[in-house]
Design goal:
By secondary structure, this protein is mainly beta. It has one helix and seven strands, in the order E-E-E-H-E-E-E-E. The strands form two sheets. Strands 4-5-6-7 form a four-stranded antiparallel beta sheet, with no helix packed on it. Strand 1 and strand 2 form a beta hairpin.
Length: about 90
């Protein structure tokens, strides 16, 4: 798992480069609209920190990211390589 400077999250396979993929940010716009401060841009900024747990990854979102311009963290599902549909609230 790694983060790019543009804020994208990537799952990397060291054994087969074709299995490496970016996490989908399809639901990010909806979540960003709910979590950002009024008057801010829609970009959540660079990833400052992230953490994940491999246990029971198919049961719930198991990746947490903190971004520069976001006022709340984001949850991601490593099994689906996608951002959670339910935003984290303060």
């Amino acid at each position: 798992m790694s983060c790019a400077p543009d804020g994208s999250l990537r799952d990397i396979s060291l054994l087969n480069e074709f299995q490496s993929m970016n996490f989908s940010q399809k639901n990010l716009k909806q979540s960003a609209d709910l979590l950002r401060e009024e008057g801010e841009s829609s970009s959540i900024g660079k990833v400052r920190q992230f953490d994940f747990c491999e246990f029971r990854e198919r049961d719930w979102s198991n990746v947490l990211t903190c971004h520069e311009r976001a006022k709340a963290p984001y949850l991601w599902q490593s099994a689906n390589h996608a951002i959670s549909k339910i935003p984290v609230e303060n």
